[in-house]
Structures are given as C-alpha cells and as structure tokens.
Amino acid sequence: GAVVSQHPSWVICKSGTSVKIECRSLDFQATTMFWYRQFPKQSLMLMATSNEGSKATYEQGVEKDKFLINHASLTLSTLTVTSAHPEDSSFYICSARDPIRVQETQYFGPGTRLLVL
Amino acid sequence: GQNIDQPTEMTATEGAIVQINCTYQTSGFNGLFWYQQHAGEAPTFLSYNVLDGLEEKGRFSSFLSRSKGYSYLLLKELQMKDSASYLCAVRATDSWGKLQFGAGTQVVVTP
C-alpha cells in the first residue's frame, strides 16, 4: 500500500528556534499533501494544503509566516515552524493524496511530536 | 456550516459487535472515510464510501446514506487491539480533496 514517512518523529527545541519537519511519499507521487495538527484527545485540524510547485493554501486562523510550507517535489513537502513557542507543542501529521488510486485516499505519515521548551 | 458528529466513547467486550455512528452536515460531499488511530500514532485508512450502501471489509463494514447525512462503522468480533479512536471524515468537493474530521470515537474493548 501507499507509504508516507515523516522525519523527525520526535523533536524538542528551545523557544524561539525554528523546526523543520519533512513529509515524503515513498511509493507514489503526491501532487497534493496536507498538514494537520492534533492536540491531546482532540481530532485532526487541517493547517494547510500543499501543492507541488505552487504556494500552500492555509486554513483560516493558521499563520502562513509562522508555518512555512514548501512542496518542492512530487514526493517531498516540508513544514517549518518558525520561532516556535510552547503553545506550538503538538502532534504534527502530514498526509499525501495518491491520485492514481480510485478513491484518491489520503495516507498519513507517522507524525512528528514537537515539544517546545 | 460544517459539522461532523460522532459519539465520544464506546465500550464493548471482546468478541462483541460495536457500531459507531457519524452524522454530517457539510457544504459539499465527495466521499466519507473512516480511519483508525491508536494513541500516539497517525491515522490508518479503514474504509471509504461515496455511494449509498454497505461496504464490507473483513471484520469492518461501513454504511452510508447520503440523503440522511449518516454513516456508521461496524466492528465485528472485537479484539483487544481494536481499542483505538475511530475518526469519521468527509471529503470536500474542492479540487484538492480536503478532509474534515469528526472529533473521533474512543472505543474501549474489555476482556
């Protein structure tokens, strides 16, 4: 089946630093990837839609200058949390849509747990 | 507005059957997905419905009624490993196929 990887799986950083998270589709080309954030015991909240070769589309309330998204190739999207603060601590999950499969299902990466001290 | 409702928690015993209901009111509809999410892990795809009716996949089945804005996920022959959160998600009609998720139903399977 479709495989999506994320790196790193865990990151701890100091307040004010920037953190980059990578999302890769390993066995298919994903023109569209999605970034979600999930707080404990809550559902997934879509942050932005990342399209290869174009600017990301952000959901209402998500600061595009704080959460920088780059979808440089058909298999890689990156999310950079700039000037991270403790309130940015969360579980960040990416997904990639496989356009070839009939259902165009979104497949999720394993997630990145971010802790900002 | 957009609204997806599912129960917060359900408890059932090993070997039993549990049905998780999901109702939705969304501005567009292009399919409904069910995902399973174990604590601390990412969601894994379980099922997809876009037409009315029942889709069966082993111990899991999913049903959709578009006119009622209603779906359910049926888990049969429950196993301890089925203890997880089950997320109902509706796909929008935009070109990117965004998913809107419900809050999830925590299923607890007891011995």
Describe the structure.
- The complex is a heterodimer of chains A (117) and B (111).
- Chain A is an all-beta fold and 117 residues long.
- Chain A has no helices and eleven strands.
- In chain A, strands 2, 4, 5, 6, 9, 10 and 11 form a seven-stranded mixed sheet that branches. In chain A, strands 1-3-8-7 form a four-stranded antiparallel sheet, with no helix packed on it.
- The mean pLDDT of chain A is 90.
- Chain B is an all-beta fold.
- Chain B has no helices and eleven strands.
- In chain B, the strands form two sheets. In chain B, strands 2, 4, 5, 9, 10 and 11 form a six-stranded mixed sheet that branches.
- Chain B is globular, with a radius of gyration of 13 Å.
- Classes of the chains: A mainly beta (117), B mainly beta (111).
- Chain A binds chain B through residues 32, 34, 42-44, 46, 49, 51, 57, 91, 93, 95, 97, 103-111, 113, and chain B through 31, 33, 35, 40-45, 48, 50, 87, 96-104.
List keywords for this structure.
heterodimer, A: 117 residues, mainly beta, seven-stranded mixed beta sheet, four-stranded antiparallel beta sheet, 11 strands, B: 111 residues, globular
Can you lay out the helices and strands and say which pair or pack?
The complex is a heterodimer of chains A (117) and B (111).
Chain A: E1 4-7, E2 10-13, E3 19-25, E4 32-38, E5 45-51, E6 57-58, E7 67-73, E8 76-81, E9 90-97, E10 106-108, E11 112-116
Parallel strand pairs in A: 2-11
Antiparallel strand pairs in A: 1-3, 3-8, 4-5, 4-9, 5-6, 7-8, 9-10, 9-11
Chain B: E1 3-5, E2 9-13, E3 18-25, E4 32-37, E5 44-49, E6 53-57, E7 60-65, E8 70-75, E9 84-91, E10 99-101, E11 105-110
Parallel strand pairs in B: 2-11
Antiparallel strand pairs in B: 1-3, 3-8, 4-5, 4-9, 6-7, 7-8, 9-10, 9-11
